[in-house]
Amino acid sequence: KFMEVVETSVARSIQHDYGINEVKTKAFDVVQRELHCCGAQGPSDWAEARYNNPDGKGALEVGVGKILGTYKVPDSCCREGLSESLCDTTRNFGSIVAVLAQTIYTDGCASKMMTVIRKHDYVALAVVLAILLTEVMAMVFSMVLCCAVRRIDHFKA
């Protein structure tokens, strides 16, 4: 169930937010570069993204974009060590050409993100528990402070 949530949120982020929301765009670029991945399940996810058609019509509505592979992928999908000109040429020419030339990553980011989460699940659990403990302690201290202020007002009268 958690894997499905991760996949849908990554796919939604690609389709609707990439290129529009600057923070999410930069964050997803970092994810793609660091995890060596492209798209939620693969480079073909970019065919449906607003990144290719900012007016809101996806390449799938045209009908041939995904079949021919003529959609663009971001430069963060390019493999490390490639020259910038080679990366720009292949990623703008078409993703099938880029995959065949092995200039972009072919793995999806959702599965790679789940691998990282599984690898560090105890750390994530410890962080969640620390945040929960901090919240509970803050509530206790605020109640103590509230009661102390009420007692002070009681003695003044």
Automatic annotation (TrEMBL):
Which UniProt keywords are given for this protein, alphabetically ordered? Membrane, Transmembrane, Transmembrane helix
Spell out where the chain crosses the membrane. 122-145
Name-wise, this protein is CD9 antigen-like
Q: What is its main location?
A: membrane
- Cellular component GO terms, alphabetically? membrane
Q: Where in the cell is it found?
A: Membrane
Organism listed in the record: Hirondellea gigas
Is Transmembrane helix a UniProt keyword of this protein? yes
Recorded topology in the membrane: Multi-pass membrane protein
Q: Which InterPro entries match?
A: Tetraspanin/Peripherin, Tetraspanin_EC2_sf
| One Pfam assignment | Tetraspanin
